[in-house]
């Protein structure tokens, strides 16, 4: 059969570009199905809880919530969907169900951008695809990650599909404070984070940003619950981002956030925070601890807290100064940041150091599921009393001769 001029990845992307944002994935699925001869192509999006895949669907005529999207659980990691998300590799399997022709197959391809597991592409084909078709499916799934990342700026379709239950106002505010991607893979590091919300939002946030030679990471925990905590968190995160984008050092960033919180809340609300700036060449880390639990370092099969001296939380006292302390990462180190919801109340029953040692080779993205599942189990199925938030940074080093410079021991102090 002669190849059409609009076949291939370029044809897919041209068709998407010509479609309205709300129809981009529909057009992508239809065009890819035509190119590889699939009877069905569908995109399954990871839900907000990270526990299921949701088959992308449009809201009904009555608006969001009038249709329930099909969900596929990720709890059983031995099943094809869960294995594909974990292993991040394309799988060709027998097609499910009766009445299909002999030899019919199902293809599952991870839709991932820089380690952020956005979902899966699923194709049903009447016969096993050839190598060229599989190569196109793999490339198309990778391209779809960037299509979704771009198109969700223009429509709420992806938000509708990912949400299982209605979100409170505080929850809405909290989500808008988080980065768009919870995982980032770069040459020197892999980072993943997760926030398991309490029954009433507890004001936790995390953030990160990458520039040419530094990685910035922050974790904050605002006092209180619900909208009041969300508003405190908004002021703190907004101030920290503003300082970071202005090129300020960590001490100045924390001082500005402290002044903003004191000015607008009269010392009646505070935010704990841990701010890190990682030098991507040396592995040197600048750190500010504003009354927050210290990070945990996993090194050589052992877990210990990084010895940082805490300053006051932001918002407690006008004029508070914040010390920039320093330590250094070695290639192979894992750094884990936590809020108190991961270590207090029912979460105290979790053997956190033991989990980190047992799962020291687990990808950070999967480690987030391990940690949050352990906290939920410790809560005995009851709603969490406080947000439980974690962030994992795996440090690989710069990948050149300068890597040897990153071998010094961790030290505390200013």
SSE diagram, text form:
Elements: H1 8-18, H2 24-36, E1 40-46, E2 52-55, E3 71-73, H3 80-87, E4 91-94, E5 105-113, E6 116-125, H4 131-151, H5 157-162, H6 169-177, E7 183-185, E8 189-196, E9 204-210, E10 214-222, H7 226-245, H8 250-265, E11 271-279, E12 284-290, E13 296-299, E14 302-305, E15 325-328, E16 334-338, H9 352-358, H10 364-378, E17 388-395
Antiparallel strand pairs: 1-2, 1-6, 2-3, 4-5, 5-6, 7-8, 8-17, 9-10, 10-11, 11-12, 12-15, 13-14, 13-16, 16-17
Helix pairs in contact: 1-2, 1-4, 2-4, 6-7, 7-8
Protein name: Stage II sporulation E family protein
Keywords: Hydrolase
InterPro entries: Bact_Sigma-Reg, PPM-type-like_dom_sf, PPM-type_phosphatase-like_dom
How would you portray this structure in words?
- The chain is of the alpha+beta class.
- It folds into 2 domains: 8-161, Beta-Lactamase (2-Layer Sandwich), CATH 3.30.450; 169-407, PPM-type phosphatase domain (Phosphatase 2c, domain 1).
- The protein has helices spanning 8-18, 24-36, 80-87, 131-151, 157-162, 169-177, 226-245, 250-265, 352-358, 364-378, and strands at residues 40-46, 52-55, 71-73, 91-94, 105-113, 116-125, 183-185, 189-196, 204-210, 214-222, 271-279, 284-290, 296-299, 302-305, 325-328, 334-338, 388-395.
- A hairpin with a 5-residue loop joins strand 1 (40-46) and strand 2 (52-55).
- The radius of gyration is 23 Å and the shape is elongated.
- 40% of the residues are buried.
């Amino acid at each position: 059969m002669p190849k059409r001029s609009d076949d291939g990845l370029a044809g897919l992307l041209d068709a998407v570009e010509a479609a309205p944002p709300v129809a981009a994935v529909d057009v992508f699925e239809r065009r890819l199905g035509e190119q590889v001869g699939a009877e069905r192509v569908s995109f399954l999006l990871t839900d907000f809880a990270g526990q299921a895949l949701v088959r992308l669907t449009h809201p009904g005529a009555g608006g969001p919530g009038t249709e329930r999207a099909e969900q596929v659980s990720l709890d059983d990691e031995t099943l094809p969907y869960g294995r594909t998300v974990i292993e991040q590799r394309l799988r060709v399997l027998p097609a499910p169900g009766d009445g299909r022709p002999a030899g019919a197959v199902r293809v599952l391809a991870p839709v991932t951008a820089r380690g952020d597991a956005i979902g899966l592409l699923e194709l049903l084909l009447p016969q096993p695809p050839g190598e060229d078709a599989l190569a196109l499916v793999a490339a198309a799934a990778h391209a779809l990650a960037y299509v979704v990342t771009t198109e969700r700026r223009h429509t709420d379709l992806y938000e509708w599909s990912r949400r299982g239950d209605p979100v409170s106002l505080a929850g809405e505010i909290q989500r808008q404070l988080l980065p768009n991607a919870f995982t980032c893979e770069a040459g020197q590091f892999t980072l993943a984070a997760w926030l398991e919300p309490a029954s009433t939002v507890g004001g936790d946030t995390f953030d990160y940003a990458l520039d040419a030679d530094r990685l910035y990471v922050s974790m904050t925990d605002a006092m209180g619950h619900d909208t009041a905590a969300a508003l405190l968190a908004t002021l703190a995160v907004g101030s920290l981002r503003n300082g970071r984008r202005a090129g300020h050092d960590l001490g100045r960033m924390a001082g500005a956030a402290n002044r903003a919180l004191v000015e607008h809340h009269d010392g009646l609300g505070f935010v704990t925070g841990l701010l890190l700036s990682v030098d991507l060449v040396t592995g040197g880390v600048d750190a500010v601890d504003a009354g927050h639990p210290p990070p945990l370092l996993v090194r050589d099969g052992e877990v210990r807290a990084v010895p940082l001296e805490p300053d006051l939380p932001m918002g407690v006292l006008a004029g508070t100064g914040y010390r920039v302390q320093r330590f250094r990462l070695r290639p192979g180190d894992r750094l884990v940041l936590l809020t108190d919801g991961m270590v207090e109340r029912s979460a105290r029953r979790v053997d956190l150091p033991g989990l980190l040692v047992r799962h020291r080779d687990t990808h950070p993205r999967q480690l987030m599921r391990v940690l949050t599942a352990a906290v939920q189990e410790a809560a005995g199925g009851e709603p969490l009393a406080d947000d439980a938030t974690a962030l994992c940074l795996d440090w690989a080093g710069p990948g050149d001769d300068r890597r040897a410079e990153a071998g010094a021991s961790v030290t505390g102090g200013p």
